[in-house]
Design a protein that fits this description.
This protein is an alpha/beta fold. The chain has helices at residues 2-13, 50-53, 56-61, 63-74, 83-93, 108-112, 138-143, 169-181, 231-236, and strands at residues 18-22, 97-102, 117-119, 122-129, 135-136, 156-160, 184-188, 209-212, 225-227. 37% of the residues are buried. The structure holds nicotinamide-adenine-dinucleotide. Nicotinamide-adenine-dinucleotide is lined by residues 23-25, 27-29, 32, 34-37, 40, 103-106, 121, 189-191, 193-194, 212-215, 230-232.
Length: 238
């Protein structure tokens, strides 16, 4: 472990064009469960499987059930950034990190102070009307027990990318550009199972690919350094 951390630290110190690409595992140390770990949301029992509830077609057919799950599992309450979020923000400020690309929807990178954050799957902190597009403040939407409705009568939804829906093409293009131009890519806390996000790694051309994940991922054999430890603990040491 110490030798790997020393290598990781050295790679960071010698780079001013690092991109971090992360997933749900970045926020588990803040108390937010991921999807695919032993204690992740996919192992818990609901009336419908979570991956079905979080799909575009389910939302359209059954917004009441979607919002029941949403209030139960996705309204976060008092969660704080952990050492991974905080250290990443500091490394951006120091000029090492150019961009954080995240699959998370929790806003914790911005809460930690990161400025250049690309949210591939949107955010739970923004809501809009599916009919007229008008935004509804987060507090207002979350205060409604069932399905929130706009003044126009349309159904309001969180600005997150559900399964079956496309990623925002501008955000995706920007992510491709940052990854293809960076000299070091740190990938952390993601099972690399959700496409097209996971496929972004293929745009990296450099020789400093670091993977930090508790479990093995399908990309481990492509990495120059693999660290199977908790990401907050790793970043606390660099
Ligand atoms: P995933 O649940 O598929 O995989 C998470 C990975 O992180 C697992 O391989 C696990 O071993 C690893 N992990 C968990 N805790 C870790 C830690 N402390 N340190 C290092 N590794 C750790 O998550 P994914 O790949 O991001 O894909 C799931 C999708 O679910 C994403 O699209 C994301 O948008 C969404 N999601 C987001 C949140 C959030 O916003 N916090 C939470 C759950 C799911």
């Amino acid at each position: 472990m110490n030798e790997k951390i020393a290598r990781f630290r050295d790679m960071i110190e010698n780079s001013d064009n690092i991109v971090f690409f992360g997933g749900a595992g970045v926020s588990t140390e803040s108390g937010i469960p991921d999807f695919r770990s032993e204690d992740g949301l996919y192992r818990q029992k609901y009336k419908f499987p979570p991956e079905e509830i979080l799909s575009g077609s389910f939302f359209r057919k059954n917004p009441e059930e979607f919002y029941r799950f949403y209030h139960d599992k996705l309204v976060l309450g008092n969660v704080e950034p952990n050492r991974a979020h905080i250290r990443l923000a500091e490394l951006e400020k120091q000029g090492n990190i150019r961009a954080v690309i995240t699959q998370n929807i929790d806003g914790l990178h911005q809460a930690a102070g990161s400025k250049n954050v690309l949210e591939l799957h949107g955010t739970i902190h923004r809501f809009y009307c599916t009919s007229c597009g008008r935004e509804m403040p987060e507090d207002e939407a979350n205060a409604i027990a069932g399905v929130p409705h706009c003044v126009c009568g349309g159904i309001v939804r969180p600005d997150v990318v559900l399964y079956e829906e496309s990623l925002n093409s501008r955000v995706l293009a920007e992510a491709v550009k940052y990854i293809s131009e960076c000299d070091m890519l740190i990938v952390g806390g993601t099972s690399l199972n959700v496409y097209p996000a996971a496929g972004l790694i293929n745009y990296y051309r450099g020789g400093k690919l670091v993977l930090i994940n508790r479990q093995a991922t399908p990309y481990d054999s492509y990495a120059n350094l693999v660290i199977n430890e908790k990401i907050g603990e790793v970043f606390a040491l660099v």
